[in-house]
Amino acid sequence: LVLGDDRMLGRLAQAYHSLRKRETQKFCLTPRLSLQLYYIPVLAPEEPATSRHSELQELAAFLGRADPWYQNTVNTLCPAIHKLAEMPPSLDTSRTVDPFILDVITYYVRMGTLPIYFQIYTVKIFRDLSQGPTEDIFLTELKVDVQDSRLLKDGFSPRRKGAADGPGAELSICYQKALLSHRAQVVTGSLRATGLVLKALPTSDTDGSGPPHAPHSAVPITDHTCLNVSVTEVVKSSNLAGRSFSTVTNTFRTATIQIQSQDQRLLMLLLDKDGRRTYRDVVRIEVAPCPDPCSGTHKSRASWLGSHQPEAEGTRAKPKPLLMPINTFSGIV
């Protein structure tokens, strides 16, 4: 049972990925652990009730749209828990304690048996293109901003004259466009932008590109898994008064994306809205669905059991994505 906001769920996804990865190291001795995850959205007391309030509860809002029982039962606990935390402690043992919160949590744990599966994404972070990347994962959001203070390298010249003028940075973007036909269509290009936001959750219940989900007894559906990318592009215009800059937001959907700075500006990353998971001085990133570490052990397990046997067809299959389940009452309805 996890209490917190989207930042806490990002840390939970890190722990979940680490657990699955450790299970593959000694597959003969360690069975795959069956986990039942329950989530109750709770914000820290210092968080003001502003737009930041809703930004940190996007996953809870998605669960509420997907499951009306979750919305009417679990999502109502957040204000009740805050009121309980603000109450002064009482030493009067004869005072009746309101069992509402405990009853709702118990009901959720007993009756919430249908999970919704969320895709975990991996991001490769390059601070130097001549060296290997640092890898991390995120669950709900990856924010990319342009740093203003430092340059890529001493003596590095821009790709063209005037490339470093104006706000933002010149970015090279390559992504695989998400199509209903599931055909692979790679799009490449460059643009000037001040930042990007990659969201793994749909913004409304009419958006069909949300995280993968499946009934309790079915195989999770991952065909429609994609990231919703918002790019704040810088548009330059010239007139008699001189040059001026404006911004416009472009959106698209993709499953994988590669972003690289082409001029003197470096990038800063923020994973799952968590200030403790920030990367600075980044030159290039590569984002893709995180593969399930256990799916990569089939070939090793088959060779360990009998190297003389022919390789099974399933061992040559594409690695399965790593999905983190969160239990609800009815799943997707």
Automatic annotation (TrEMBL):
<protein>
    <submittedName>
        <fullName>Phosphoinositide-3-kinase, regulatory subunit 6</fullName>
    </submittedName>
</protein>
<dbReference type="InterPro" id="IPR019522">
    <property type="entry name" value="PIK3R5/6"/>
</dbReference>
<dbReference type="Pfam" id="PF10486">
    <property type="entry name" value="PI3K_1B_p101"/>
</dbReference>
<feature type="region of interest" description="Disordered">
    <location>
        <begin position="295"/>
        <end position="318"/>
    </location>
</feature>
<keyword id="KW-0418">Kinase</keyword>
<keyword id="KW-0808">Transferase</keyword>
<dbReference type="GO" id="GO:0005944">
    <property type="term" value="C:phosphatidylinositol 3-kinase complex, class IB"/>
</dbReference>
<dbReference type="GO" id="GO:0046935">
    <property type="term" value="F:1-phosphatidylinositol-3-kinase regulator activity"/>
</dbReference>
<dbReference type="GO" id="GO:0016301">
    <property type="term" value="F:kinase activity"/>
</dbReference>
<dbReference type="GO" id="GO:0007186">
    <property type="term" value="P:G protein-coupled receptor signaling pathway"/>
</dbReference>
